[in-house]
Amino acid sequence: MLKSKDLLGIRELDIPEIELILDQTAKLEEVSTRAVKKLPALRGKIVANLFYTPSTRTRISFERACKALSADLINIGQLPSALGETLTDTALTLQAMGVDIIVVRHHLAGAPVQLARNIEASVINAGDGAHEHPTQALVDAYTIRRTLGRIEGLKVALLGDIRHASAAKSDLYCLVKLGAQVAVGAPSTLIPEGLSEFGCQVFHTVEEAVDAADVIITTRVSLDYGNDKLLPSLREYSRFYSLNTERLALAKPDVMILHSGAINRGVEITATVAERARPHLQRQIAAGVTLRMAVLYMLAMGKGVA
């Protein structure tokens, strides 16, 4: 059981809690192999997906996880804010309608924390601006552990837009806690100040970051978030920082490649490398459903589900 009714960030979790979530995910993995991919664990419970920013993998995997656990699901987009309603008022409305768990994705850092303080329902952070994306980091940790058998002692390179990618920060916090050696490789403009204080090595070349790496995790790079002021162009980024076959050759021969999605082929990763990574990416995406099933179940269990 988790200590909190909410999952707001990796920094709030201790190592036993992270390992408990990963272990629960392993127990639920068998469900995906059944002819009927469904459990009655959350029957009668209501989950609301409250997504204020675009998402493909995260939103759909939460939908699949809810349905696999037999929960009732409500999907909500940006309509409440378009009508002028605050995030808290929307959440209180949902709670009054009997919603048990709210999965929220928002462009403002701290939005899920604000919700959790004002409602009794459980809150899951599905990405809050440039802050955290805890379930994606747990998915990545599970995929690594499931494939390589361990996390402790592995060298993991994080590439891409580290400044704005909430998943990259959560990956860093999670993997360092679990004993990985994390190396960040990105332009200085895409690395937040003080990042090395969290136990990672910071490099300004991809070559240094991926050298002898066991795992490489890339994050999406685009001209969103004001990056048009931080990068000369995406072509320039691709030339010096894209994960291509030459840079990949510096990592270990059997290196594992993950991507937090969505992929910009030819920018943060070349099409050739993306295709080589396809088996790992498919495992990562499949684990996204099972991991989120585990989180939903554990939060609901903490509130009285048998």
UniProtKB/TrEMBL annotation:
Quickly give the catalysed reaction: carbamoyl phosphate + L-aspartate = N-carbamoyl-L-aspartate + phosphate + H(+)
One cellular component term from this protein's GO annotations in UniProt: cytosol
Q: What class of enzyme is it?
A: transferase
Query: What is a single Pfam family found in this protein's UniProt entry?
Result: OTCace
Enzyme Commission number(s) of this protein: 2.1.3.2
Q: In which pathway does it act?
A: Pyrimidine metabolism; UMP biosynthesis via de novo pathway; (S)-dihydroorotate from bicarbonate: step 2/3
- Kindly state a single biological-process term from the GO annotations of this entry: 'de novo' pyrimidine nucleobase biosynthetic process
Q: Which UniProt keywords apply?
A: Pyrimidine biosynthesis, Transferase
Q: Among its keywords, does the record have Transmembrane?
A: no
Q: Name one GO molecular function term.
A: amino acid binding
Query: SUPFAM superfamilies, alphabetically?
Result: Aspartate/ornithine carbamoyltransferase
Give start and end of each Aspartate/ornithine carbamoyltransferase Asp/Orn-binding domain. 152-299
Question: Which residue range or ranges hold the Aspartate/ornithine carbamoyltransferase carbamoyl-P binding domain?
Answer: 5-145
Similarity comment: Belongs to the aspartate/ornithine carbamoyltransferase superfamily. ATCase family.
The protein's job, in short, is: Catalyzes the condensation of carbamoyl phosphate and aspartate to form carbamoyl aspartate and inorganic phosphate, the committed step in the de novo pyrimidine nucleotide biosynthesis pathway.
Q: What is this protein called?
A: Aspartate carbamoyltransferase
The species this protein was found in: Candidatus Coatesbacteria bacterium RBG_13_66_14
